[in-house]
Every structure is written in structure tokens, then in C-alpha cells.
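C-alpha cells
===========
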Amino acid sequence: MNQVLLFSRCSLLLALLALAGLPAMAQVYRCGGAGGAAPEYINNAKEAQTRGCKAMQGGNVTVVQGTPAQKSAVRVAAAAPSSSGARTDGSPEQKARDSDSRSILESELKKAEAKLAELQKEYNNGEPEKQGIESRNYQRYLDRVAELKDNIARNQSDIAGIKREIARLPGGAN
């Protein structure tokens, strides 16, 4: 019998210690918030009673503090001229950039034209020479011919684009 009494007292003591370690469930009160003002949430019952706050019912309340944006603080940044889009036609720096652009585009044009000549030579007006296994596998030959034709069309499009870019540069087209 003493063991049962001792066991029940230990159980009771452990239960009390466990309850003491748990946080108390506090009542949350909402104060203010009328007339567009931000409400304030408190968990002090005496202060809530003196201020006339209302008790919140239901689940947990999460309040995120922040500062409201003030209309007078909003500033519009002045648009600064950027060197990427702005063109100052008379300046020596712009003339140097235009000259560099022209020389780069002209070298790209020469490379593209050389590649086009090479592709057209290989294409041989739609009848390129068969290579290796293509004599036994006609579909592989047809695939290569179609690929060459596509590459020629793409290269011609690139050349036309480069010529348009050169024509846009100050000083006219060549």
C-alpha cells in the first residue's frame, strides 16, 4: 500500500512539474484600430481593461510590425541618360564607337560571306557528292542535303541582318 501511495505522489509531482514548464495560454486583446488607425494587440488583462480593449477569440494571433510608407517619402528618380541607348552624334567618342562597330560588322560580314561560299560549293546546286556510307544509305544523304540547304538559308539571313546593321550606322551603307 505504501508503494502505491508513493507511486501516486510521484506521479502527481511529475504532472505538476510538467504543467509548470508549459507556457500559460494568454488571452490576447485588440486595442484601437478604429478610423483607419492600426490596431494594437496586447496580452495584459489589466491594461486591456483600463484601455477598453476587446478580447480576441479563436486561434493564434500573429502580428508583423512594419512601418507604413509615407506618401511624401516616395521619390521619383530622375532618368539619367544611359550610354547604351543615347547617341551623341557630334562627339569624338561616339564617332570612335561607330567606327569600331562598323569594322566589327564588316569583319563579321566577310566571315559570313566566306562561309556561304563554302556551303554553296559543298551544296553543289542540290547535288553534293556522296560521302562514305551515304552511297549505301540514301536517307542519310538526303538528310545532309536538307541540312546544307537550311545552313545556306540561315547564313543568307545572317548576311542580310549584318548588312542592315551596317546601313543603320551613321555615314550610310557601303
